[in-house]
């Protein structure tokens, strides 16, 4: 007894428990009852009151063990035989009646065990569960639940237990769940009460659970625990629920309703649409809740879901409930991802979006707990529903959200689709279902391959194509096309709503360009690669795509194609100018397939026959076919004659070649029957027939412009007819005084002349050549007049941009001509370029020669070779001296001495075309597409500026003024733009640290270009190889610009680098610079210092290339000092270190001053260190000569602009640097002398 009264005797009580276990074994083996009757019973009877009052877990545990060993009724009987006062009935033969057992259980054990705020609560609950007898189990359990529920505070919401009793029930239920497992182990048959979850169900538990799930805040942790313990399922093996299936469904429906209500108030339309889809699919209507604690309600629902989702899985297949909840979870996570991606882009009207983030992040954390296997183990119906809802959400996000940043929403939707593929799709069939759902027809998709096609594109269409293209690139076109082509067979429920793979290919090609990519650079190469490695059965995909594009071209015409019909293959960049989407796609499609040798002569011939058959409808000409035929015939003829060496009188031998030549002869004869061009009027078919004939005579330019020659072999008959067509135009023109000046007529005549000269020049007589040259003179004169007219119009209407657009468009129409011009310019001498620029001044054009060159360089419709020619002229002598700085800077300024004072007003002014790029454009470009034309223009402008700066002599006044301008006005955001093209991430940084490590394409090109620019001091090679603009090429230019900036503007770059706040970014940039840029830059600096001749016996410099050190020794009048300049490994991003290693006859103050002065000069120098050291020497030379130092900066020579102190105070006579004085006036807000305070 004494042992039980002391709570500290835990070890002794445990020994007693062990002793009881041994007695149990004896009783079981021998069948004896004396251990209970003689030992345990008397012990517990005498100590029961002590056990009740002690409130210690170990003493209560003693009683629990006894009950579990000997049974509830026997223990109660033994305990209360010794205490008969507890019995309500007369005991006979010392046995306890059933009603007495239940009365003692209800009146003594239940109140005691369920008493609140006890130390031994867990132990008493174990005892209470141990007392559940198989015979009276249901009555006992029912009484326990009723007792707790009835004890709940009456102040709670209706049907909701208070927090304390909720905690009690939660603890009891968790222990009951363990009790079930124990009972199952004892009773393998499962016939006894308490071995099944259903035995523990209770109507009050059901009603309380539903009431709590529907209650209003505030919620306590106890209520969450109560709900979680009721539902179970926190772990995979713990899914026993104390609720009926119907109650579980009601609770989870309530949770889904709360999630839907959260979704439907999203500021994003696509999320709201998902709420509608969910409500329709699950038949759950979520009402808007304006409660102030609405977020708390959402969190409460999520917490219940978080600790019970393995139980939720038991309801899999229950009318969309499981799929609905997981769909809501994914969509809320996606919304959170979108908000984070938009970040500062979210405007003030969407501030509440960010307020939703905390709950969204909680949902993200919950979703991360769902592993792939868990999701894929859901039933087929749930996965199908989930797939349908999520893919609808993705489509809606693309098509509905017009205001979102294209790249952001495309990238996120791409990630979401891959996430659905990973988590939901179990096999290829389900992957096909996903593709079918994603690409199924709708109001906004497809746009082109539909009946009644309209040229007005649907909202979000280009973004959706960008998404599809990213998916094709990532998962592979083979997998994409193969899966999509099986949709009709595997998913009959959506087969009528989807497009075929050929329709998909045609749709993408017609879309042509989308955010971040285009059909030419992305989809067509993928399609060509797929066609090359696919089996012959896939030929049907190409044929079907061709059929769709051809039918669309025939129906929707090609009236804008006439200017694109040329005698040589149409370049890809010019195909983009074709406005008719089907025809543009068809031209690119055919060009790619024939160029890649996927289709050959046989296919080309069959297509020519097909088009010839479509050219006539009965006897009438099919004008739509005639419109597009000239453009297509030039593509289709190339594979037929690309292998034949053209020659005179070469007869084709095959029937196929005969068909083509006979067809062309027929077209020539038909064209000869038409009236001559001089009589032509708009609207006649003459133009189309002539275009068709001209297109049949292509030229080959293999080997450059000088190697142009006919690409076809023609028969004498064909040549004769072509020459007759030329003569017809010449003879009529010679006989008539009237000349038809319509542009269409003149253009057709010029093309006809070109093919006639190329294929029939041997037939030409003197009159033919006179006719040709006469027209050439006339066209040149007309071009000059037109240029003058355009210039005058621009001046009169102040609409230079519109005029520039007209001129740019005309250049695109005659690309080959302008490429010939550009080629001549690039190969010209500097004298020729000088004369050309000066001659333009006599034309009186508003922009002048320099402005005109800039207009070509920065045109909205660039021709690569012409653009490079403009850059070539502008960036080389003699033009570059006029191209960067305005004319008010005289040539004498170029070599003006630094001793010449520059006043504050004498600031340099750049050409407007350059200054706008340097000062403002980087901010706009930073947000643009990486291949945007404005971005290319910005880099070219900076290339011009830095190249000019690099070419100026070190002592040039203009150089100093340019550097000062860049420090004051040129935004360093240009460097942020450059590093958008230099791909630096963690893995690449690690590669940079390794010797001989291979770098990725963009980074390797940037590194190589940077090293080359530093070594040569030129950007020319990077600019020359820029066109056609591609990611790797623009990375090369970005690296070259960065490298030359490090060489020419080290302090400027260092200032930008010091302001970087992202440590990862700065570490990556420093690693790139240290590895790829600093070594050649340091070598160049040391080499320049070593070569520098300072022409002074009192000053010497020694260089240690091994230690990257420079020792400058200055001696004067028995005084001197050695200064050591050390270049860091990541120079110039890190400042050089300056130290004094020896001083002689110099005071400590002067020594410190000299040291600080050298430090300022070398750290502020935008140029070579050799210059900075020379300036430092001159500074102290001047000081020894008696030149007064500036009282503001304590230096004779200014550390930045290298001027002398010349502005003197009229009162105290002290002289100041103009820059120092200007800064003093600006910061002090007064114009008095810094020393005597008199007005300056």
Automatic annotation (TrEMBL):
<dbReference type="InterPro" id="IPR054478">
    <property type="entry name" value="LTN1_UBC"/>
</dbReference>
<dbReference type="Pfam" id="PF13639">
    <property type="entry name" value="zf-RING_2"/>
</dbReference>
<feature type="domain" description="RING-type">
    <location>
        <begin position="1190"/>
        <end position="1237"/>
    </location>
</feature>
<dbReference type="InterPro" id="IPR011016">
    <property type="entry name" value="Znf_RING-CH"/>
</dbReference>
<keyword id="KW-0833">Ubl conjugation pathway</keyword>
<dbReference type="InterPro" id="IPR013083">
    <property type="entry name" value="Znf_RING/FYVE/PHD"/>
</dbReference>
<dbReference type="InterPro" id="IPR001841">
    <property type="entry name" value="Znf_RING"/>
</dbReference>
<comment type="subunit">
    <text>Component of the ribosome quality control complex (RQC).</text>
</comment>
<dbReference type="Pfam" id="PF23009">
    <property type="entry name" value="UBC_like"/>
</dbReference>
<dbReference type="InterPro" id="IPR054477">
    <property type="entry name" value="LTN1_E3_ligase_6th"/>
</dbReference>
<keyword id="KW-0863">Zinc-finger</keyword>
<comment type="pathway">
    <text>Protein modification; protein ubiquitination.</text>
</comment>
<comment type="function">
    <text>E3 ubiquitin-protein ligase. Component of the ribosome quality control complex (RQC), a ribosome-associated complex that mediates ubiquitination and extraction of incompletely synthesized nascent chains for proteasomal degradation.</text>
</comment>
<dbReference type="InterPro" id="IPR039795">
    <property type="entry name" value="LTN1/Rkr1"/>
</dbReference>
<keyword id="KW-0808">Transferase</keyword>
<keyword id="KW-0479">Metal-binding</keyword>
<keyword id="KW-0862">Zinc</keyword>
<protein>
    <recommendedName>
        <fullName>E3 ubiquitin-protein ligase listerin</fullName>
        <ecNumber>2.3.2.27</ecNumber>
    </recommendedName>
</protein>
<dbReference type="InterPro" id="IPR039804">
    <property type="entry name" value="RING-CH-C4HC3_LTN1"/>
</dbReference>
<comment type="similarity">
    <text>Belongs to the LTN1 family.</text>
</comment>
<dbReference type="Pfam" id="PF22999">
    <property type="entry name" value="LTN1_E3_ligase_6th"/>
</dbReference>
């Amino acid at each position: 007894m004494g042992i039980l009264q002391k709570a500290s005797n835990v070890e002794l009580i445990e020994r007693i428990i062990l002793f009881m276990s041994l007695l149990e074994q004896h009783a079981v083996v021998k069948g004896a009852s004396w251990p209970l009757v003689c030992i345990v019973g008397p012990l517990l009877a005498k100590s029961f009151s002590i056990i009740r009052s002690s409130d210690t877990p170990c003493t209560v545990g003693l009683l629990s063990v006894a009950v579990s060993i000997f049974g509830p009724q026997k223990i109660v009987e033994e305990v209360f035989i010794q205490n008969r006062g507890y019995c309500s009935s007369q005991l006979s033969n010392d046995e306890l009646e059933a009603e007495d057992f239940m009365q003692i259980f209800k009146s003594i054990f239940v109140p005691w065990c369920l008493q609140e705020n006890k130390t031994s609560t867990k132990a008493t609950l174990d005892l209470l569960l141990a007392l559940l007898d198989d015979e009276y189990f249901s009555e006992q359990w029912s009484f326990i639940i009723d007792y707790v529920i009835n004890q709940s505070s009456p102040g709670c919401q209706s049907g909701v237990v208070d927090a304390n009793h909720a905690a009690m029930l939660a603890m009891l239920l968790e222990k009951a769940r363990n009790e079930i497992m124990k009972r199952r182990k004892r009773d393998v048959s499962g016939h006894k009460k308490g071995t099944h979850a259903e035995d523990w169900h209770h109507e009050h538990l059901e009603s309380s659970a539903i009431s709590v799930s529907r209650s209003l805040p505030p919620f306590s942790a106890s209520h969450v625990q109560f709900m979680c313990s009721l539902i179970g399922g926190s772990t995979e093996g713990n899914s026993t629920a104390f609720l009926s299936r119907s109650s579980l469904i009601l609770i989870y429906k309530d949770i889904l309703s709360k999630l839907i209500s959260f979704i439907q108030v999203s500021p994003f339309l696509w999320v709201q649409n998902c709420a509608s889809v969910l409500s329709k699919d699950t038949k759950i209507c979520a009402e808007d809740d304006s409660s102030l604690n609405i977020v708390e309600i959402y969190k409460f629902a999520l917490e219940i879901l978080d600790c019970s989702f393995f139980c939720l899985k038991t309801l899999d297949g229950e009318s969309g409930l499981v799929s609905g909840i997981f769909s809501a979870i994914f969509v809320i996570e996606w919304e959170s991802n979108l908000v984070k991606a938009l970040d500062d882009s979210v405007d003030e009207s969407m501030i509440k979006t960010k307020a939703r983030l905390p709950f969204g992040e909680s949902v993200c954390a919950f979703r991360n707990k769902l592993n792939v296997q868990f999701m894929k183990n859901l039933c087929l119906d749930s996965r199908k529903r989930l797939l349908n809802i999520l893919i609808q959400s993705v489509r809606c996000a693309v098509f509905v959200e017009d205001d979102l940043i294209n790249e952001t929403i495309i990238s996120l939707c791409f990630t979401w689709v891959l996430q659905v593929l990973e988590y939901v799709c179990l096999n290829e069939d389900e992957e096909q279902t996903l593709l079918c759902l994603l690409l199924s027809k709708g109001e906004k998709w497809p746009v082109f391959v539909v009946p009644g096609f309209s040229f007005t594109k649907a909202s979000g269409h280009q973004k959706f194509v960008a998404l599809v293209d990213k998916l094709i690139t990532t998962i592979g076109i083979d997998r994409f096309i193969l899966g999509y082509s099986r949709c009709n067979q595997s998913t009959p429920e959506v087969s009528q709503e989807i497009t075929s793979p050929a329709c998909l290919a045609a749709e993408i090609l017609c879309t042509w360009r989308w955010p971040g990519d285009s059909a030419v650079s992305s989809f067509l190469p993928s399609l060509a690669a797929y066609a090359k490695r696919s089996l012959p059965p896939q030929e049907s995909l190409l044929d079907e795509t061709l059929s769709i594009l051809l039918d669309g071209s025939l129906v929707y015409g090609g009236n804008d194609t006439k200017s694109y019909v040329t005698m040589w293959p149409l370049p890809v960049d010019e195909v983009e100018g074709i406005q008719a989407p089907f025809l543009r796609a068809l031209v690119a499609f055919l060009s790619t397939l024939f160029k890649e040798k996927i289709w050959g002569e046989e296919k080309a011939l069959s297509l020519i026959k097909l088009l010839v058959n479509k050219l006539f409808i009965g006897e009438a000409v099919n004008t739509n076919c005639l419109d597009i035929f000239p453009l297509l015939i030039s593509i289709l003829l190339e594979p037929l004659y690309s292998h034949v060496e053209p020659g005179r009188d070469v007869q084709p031998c095959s029937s196929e070649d005969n068909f083509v030549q006979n067809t062309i002869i027929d077209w020539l004869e038909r064209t000869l029957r038409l009236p001559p061009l001089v009589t032509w009027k708009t609207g006649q078919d003459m133009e189309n027939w002539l275009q068709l004939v001209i297109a049949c005579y292509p030229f080959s330019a293999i080997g450059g412009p000088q190697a142009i020659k006919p690409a076809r072999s023609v028969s004498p008959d064909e040549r004769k007819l072509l020459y007759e067509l030329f003569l017809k135009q010449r003879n009529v023109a010679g006989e008539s005084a009237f000349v038809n000046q319509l542009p269409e007529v003149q253009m057709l005549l010029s093309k006809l002349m070109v093919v006639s000269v190329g294929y029939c020049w041997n037939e030409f007589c003197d009159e033919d050549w006179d006719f040709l040259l006469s027209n050439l003179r006339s066209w040149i004169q007309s071009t000059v007049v037109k240029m003058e007219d355009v210039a005058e119009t621009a001046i009169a209407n102040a609409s230079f941009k519109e005029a520039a657009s007209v001129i740019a468009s005309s250049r695109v129409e005659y690309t080959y001509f302008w490429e010939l011009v550009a080629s001549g310019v690039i190969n010209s001498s500097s004298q020729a370029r000088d004369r050309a620029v000066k001659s333009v001044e006599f034309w009186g054009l508003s922009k002048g020669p320099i402005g005109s060159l800039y207009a070509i360089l920065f045109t909205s419709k660039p021709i690569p070779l012409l653009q490079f020619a403009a850059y070539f002229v502008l960036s080389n002598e003699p033009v570059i001296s006029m191209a960067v700085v305005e004319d008010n800077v005289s040539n004498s300024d170029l070599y003006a001495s630094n001793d010449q004072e520059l006043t504050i007003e004498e600031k340099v002014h750049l050409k407007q075309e350059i200054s706008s790029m340097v000062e403002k454009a980087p901010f706009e470009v930073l947000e643009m597409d990486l291949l945007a034309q404005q971005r290319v223009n910005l880099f070219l402008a900076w290339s011009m500026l830095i190249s000019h700066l690099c070419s100026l002599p070190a002592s040039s006044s203009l150089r100093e003024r340019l550097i000062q301008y860049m420090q004051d006005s040129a935004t360093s955001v240009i460097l942020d733009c450059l590093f958008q093209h230099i791909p630096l991430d963690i893995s690449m940084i690690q590669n940079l640290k390794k010797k001989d490590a291979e770098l990725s394409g963009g980074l390797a090109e940037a590194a190589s270009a940077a090293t080359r620019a530093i070594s040569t001091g030129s950007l020319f090679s990077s600019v020359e190889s820029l066109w056609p603009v591609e990611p790797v090429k623009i990375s090369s230019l970005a690296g070259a610009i960065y490298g030359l900036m490090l060489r020419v503007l080290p302090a400027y770059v260092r200032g930008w680098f010091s302001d970087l706040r992202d440590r990862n970014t700065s570490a990556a940039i420093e690693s790139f610079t240290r590895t790829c840029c600093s070594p050649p830059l340091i070598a160049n600096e040391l080499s320049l210092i070593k070569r520098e001749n300072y022409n002074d016996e009192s000053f010497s410099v020694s260089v240690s290339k091994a230690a990257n050190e420079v020792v400058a020794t200055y001696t004067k009048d028995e005084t001197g000092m050695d200064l050591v300049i050390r270049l860091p490994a990541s120079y110039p991003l890190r400042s050089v270190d300056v130290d004094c290693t020896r001083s002689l006859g110099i005071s400590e103050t002067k020594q410190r001053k000299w040291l600080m002065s050298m430090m300022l000069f070398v750290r502020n120098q935008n140029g070579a260190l050799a210059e900075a050291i020379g300036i430092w020497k001159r500074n102290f030379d001047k000081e020894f000569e008696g030149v007064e130092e500036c009282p503001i900066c304590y230096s004779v020579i200014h550390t930045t602009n290298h001027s002398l102190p010349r502005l003197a105070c009229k009162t105290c006579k002290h002289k100041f640097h103009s820059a120092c004085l200007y800064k003093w006036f600006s910061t002090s807000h007064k114009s008095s002398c810094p020393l005597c305070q008199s007005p300056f």
